[in-house]
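To assess whether ligand presence alters the predicted conformation, the chain was also submitted together with 2-oxoglutaric acid. Input:
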Amino acid sequence: MRQFIAADRAESLLAQLTADTPWRADTLTLFGKQHAQPRLTAWYGDPGCNYSYSGLAMRPLLWTGLLQRLRAEVEHACRQQFNSVLLNYYRNQRDSMGMHSDDEPELGPAPVIASLSLGEQRTLKFAPRNNPQLRAIGLPLPSGSLLLMQGDTQRNWKHGIAKSTRPMGPRISLTFRWIGKPGKI
Ligand SMILES: O=C(O)CCC(=O)C(=O)O
Ligand SMILES: [Fe+2]
């Protein structure tokens, strides 16, 4: 994790993306039950980068100029290509992300995910999946930071963002991914 963009640029990106993104409020089906997703999302990618999780199939929106510029900067910093990005919008302290691993088959055996944080600092909790000797850790993600998850991170850990009782402002995360095209995984 490292500081990637300056605080004032992060603030203006937050404002721009909040206003200009066609945010979705989705309902997930988990074990046959319907749940409103506790945050808003938007999925962008190259044509054909379809992604599905928790019973939700998502077709990508076409890249905007702004997101393409950010993708190029993140690719340069990570020396890694990304063909899609999932945006998460946490409106306040009541929005959250349940504990999960990004281990869908589309992402391949060792997913590389670069996550850019804008706005309110939230803590990404990591909990071990199958090694009881490992302890959960909390990673605070300041505005403008870039987190790279790769290798066995998804295999060995779950991660998520808990609700808070402390009032919090909005946060957007941009999670850049590589989705294997059918037949190329
Ligand atoms: O908002 C975050 O930092 C976490 C996002 C995440 O885990 C995901 O999009 O899979
Ligand atoms: Fe994730």
